[in-house]
Write a structure and sequence with these properties.
Layout lengths: L1 E2 L1 E4 L15 H14 L3 E5 L5 H13 L4 E7 L2 H11 L6 E7 L2 H8 L3 H16 L4 E7 L6 H14 L3 E6 L6 H14 L7 E6 L6 H10 L4 E4 L13 H10 L1 H4 L1 E2 L7 H12 L20 H9 L19 E3 L5 H10 L6 H17 L3 E2 H13 L7 E8 L7 E7 L5 E7 L3 H13 L3 E10 L8 E9 L2 E9 L2 H21 L11
Helix pairs in contact: 1-2, 1-11, 2-3, 5-6, 6-7, 7-8, 14-15, 16-17
The structure holds zinc ion.
Length: 515
């Protein structure tokens, strides 16, 4: 059985999804969960793109030791140097350096001849290999490159010290048959190919990212690049969970395995969905809410008699637990802490205390506390508190079918002062948002507003996701509360706080890259 390395790029390529802006704390939480999932390589960001990216890649490299950490870099001397500064403390420093190799990219984007591109790639790989034990080199837009040229440049960069060769389908254009041909061609025409691992990286513009990844694996790729829930620019990247489960369920066919702990898949998916605000469609393979729901009577009957009649994947395999009650009103601190640790909590005592208070409060209002509830509270306490320039203190809403909705809000300002404001609107949420806009004293444009429940049942926690335009940039925010209006207020304030944080820490990326 061949071992396939899983290279997760949720924090780099995935983070480039429109409307996604993860902060430092959120990236760290996701990286820790990816380590628990057993990902071999985590692409933590693009360190030379901004101070914020540099800081988060460095922190992940210092914290996560169970996975190899990498960062993207263009083939520029100063960028490779900056990437080394960010990654030198990681368990196995690894750089991901790239240059475009397709005729259209070389001519119009790089304005370089093929010879100049080879020269540039070799120089970059040599510089990187002098410091990094692992050097991944990517041929951007490989799937639209000329195959003999690809073979030539790959041979030269391997001689220069590259240990992984990635052949991305940057624009999501290739097909399973063609990508198979490309990997086979490279394996057969690059004489020193045994000195490097071949890697595949696919985009889903034609809905073939996962199929292309699997075809590349069948034709020689020993590393697969993907993102949790398939998030990423445009139509996204190949989805980690679909590739992992396909390799597992169809072991007979692919004869390949990964190091992933599959039962961590559902939790990883939920965490990434919550923190990015990108909802997982119910019909999504492996992690969608309906992925294991058998509706048809004939199917249900079959599954009751023998699961294997219609069920090829068990929910347990990927960590989908039936929504069972785990704690109740009278559960003590000790049982509570044990349960959180089981869910992957590794925060401070202060965060533990904060989550415990929120749990007791919820237990007063909701009969059964499930794992989903605890996970929502825990996420709120560990990453929600990282940004609090404005803080909601009290909220009161007056609504009736015959009167004008009015909101009264007390808020703590960034300078520590407390203010009270009141405002009206044509609905309760609008009244809240009009009032908050007055507190912040700057126009805020609401671009998107979504609400969902954490669990089933009318006593569920409410989760609100918003996208706003504030201070010249677009920012997303989320809020969790027992009441939908409070969750709505929190999400709005969270979006504003995140904009302020990004400006303060210069996390604004000047130069997003596509590979
Ligand atoms: Zn990509």
């Amino acid at each position: 059985m061949r071992k396939i390395n899983v290279f997760d790029t949720t924090l780099r390529d995935g983070e480039q999804s429109a409307g996604v802006n993860l902060n430092f704390q959120e990236k760290l939480e996701i990286a820790k969960q990816l380590e628990r999932l057993g990902v071999d390589i985590i692409e933590a960001g693009f360190p030379a793109s901004s101070q914020g990216d540099f800081a988060s890649v460095k922190a992940i490299a210092q914290t996560v030791k169970g996975s190899s950490i990498t960062g993207l870099s263009r083939s520029l001397e100063r960028e490779i140097e900056t990437t080394w500064e960010a990654l030198k403390e990681s368990a196995e420093p690894r750089i991901h350096v790239f240059i475009a190799t397709s005729p259209i990219h070389m001519e119009y984007k790089l304005r370089m001849t093929p010879d100049q591109v080879v020269e540039n790639a070799v120089a970059a790989v040599k510089q990187a290999a002098a410091k990094f034990p692992q050097v991944q080199w990517s041929a951007e837009d490989a799937s639209r490159s000329d195959l003999p040229f690809l073979a030539r440049i790959i041979r030269e960069v391997i001689d220069a010290g590259a240990t992984v060769i990635n052949l991305p389908d940057t624009v999501g254009y290739t097909t399973p048959y063609e990508i198979g041909q490309m990997f086979r061609y490279v394996s057969e025409h690059v004489p020193n190919i045994d000195k490097a691992i071949l890697s595949t990286h696919n985009h889903d513009d034609l809905g073939m990212a996962v199929a292309n990844s699997l075809a590349a694996i069948q034709n020689g790729a020993g590393q697969v690049e993907c993102t949790v829930n398939g998030i990423g620019e445009r139509a996204g990247n190949a989805s980690l969970e679909e590739i992992a489960v396909a390799l597992n369920i169809r072991q007979d066919h692919y004869q390949a395995k990964t190091n992933l702990t599959l039962k961590e898949i559902k939790r990883t998916s939920t965490l990434v969905s919550k923190l990015t605000g990108m909802v997982v469609p119910s019909n999504k393979a492996v992690v969608g809410a309906n992925a294991f729901a058998h509706e048809s009577g004939i199917h249900q009957d079959g599954v009751l008699k023998n699961k294997e009649t219609y069920e090829i994947i068990t929910p347990e395999l990927v960590g989908v637990s039936s929504n069972r009650m785990v704690l109740g009103k009278h559960s003590g601190r000790h049982a509570f802490k044990d349960k959180l640790v089981e869910l992957g909590f590794n925060g401070s005592d202060e965060q533990l205390q904060k989550t415990f208070v929120a749990f007791k409060d919820l237990a007063d209002k909701k009969k059964d506390i499930t794992e989903e509830d605890l996970f929502a509270l825990m996420t709120e306490a560990t990453v929600g508190s990282a940004v609090s320039h404005y803080e909601l203190e009290t909220l009161q809403v007056n609504y009736g079918t015959t009167n004008i909705p009015t909101a009264t809000i007390t808020m703590k300002l960034p300078n520590g002062e407390t203010v009270q404001e009141a405002g009206t609107g044509s609905g309760s949420v609008e009244a809240i948002y009009n009032t908050l806009e007055r507190v912040v004293d700057e126009p805020i444009l609401l671009m998107d507003y979504r609400i969902q429940s954490t669990t089933a049942g009318r006593d569920s926690l409410a989760e609100v996701y918003v996208t706003v335009q504030y201070d010249g940039t677009e920012s997303s925010g989320r809020g969790t509360a027992h009441d939908v209006l409070e969750a709505s207020a929190k999400a709005y304030i969270n979006a504003v706080n995140r904009t302020i944080s990004r400006k303060l820490f210069n996390e604004q990326r000047t130069n997003p890259l596509k590979v």
